[in-house]
């Protein structure tokens, strides 16, 4: 398994952040900003970063504290994107992916920045982040949303509202719902495998 590393990254303008990343062993296909869950950089997040690197992506997660506000998410993402560019990734090969709270954060980024592709796996609007339907209609990046409906996930009606809102944005989007799965699809291994393949296929299609 590809190793993950953590470093302190500081820009010339003084902006700085802690980053955890993993590099592909061979050719770098592009760069992905990974927005983590509320628990921070967990072993599961490190595994995700390493798995993406194993697929050829330079994957890097900014360390976000608690439930960040919209401005904090965008600021952290901007610095992380600059890190990827510093590491030789071309602008049209940049994407973002997030899980749970990070899924909502990824949708925020996809609605405020023009990237090659974005994927959200789970997530709802929290106290510091806007409701999903409010921002889906403002998408500026190709976006894939993957949701389960177990636990606190979105129900079928909410997913359809989200799909309809995203469709008005004028960029490519797709929204998929897995009945009975949670945001990491732990309750349904088959759904987890398919969701992972959908994620990889989305980046394959749009970052090339």
From TrEMBL:
Report the coiled-coil segments.
none
Q: Which Gene3D superfamilies match?
A: alpha/beta hydrolase
Keyword Hydrolase annotated = yes
Question: From the Swiss-Prot or TrEMBL record, what is one GO molecular function term?
Answer: hydrolase activity
What protein is this chain from?
Dienelactone hydrolase family protein
Pfam family of the protein (one): DLH
Keyword set, alphabetical order: Hydrolase
PANTHER family to which the protein is assigned, alphabetical? CARBOXYMETHYLENEBUTENOLIDASE, CARBOXYMETHYLENEBUTENOLIDASE-RELATED
Name the SUPFAM superfamilies for this protein: alpha/beta-Hydrolases
State which residue ranges cross the membrane: none
Provide the species name.
Amycolatopsis acidiphila
- Domain (Dienelactone hydrolase) ranges: 71-206
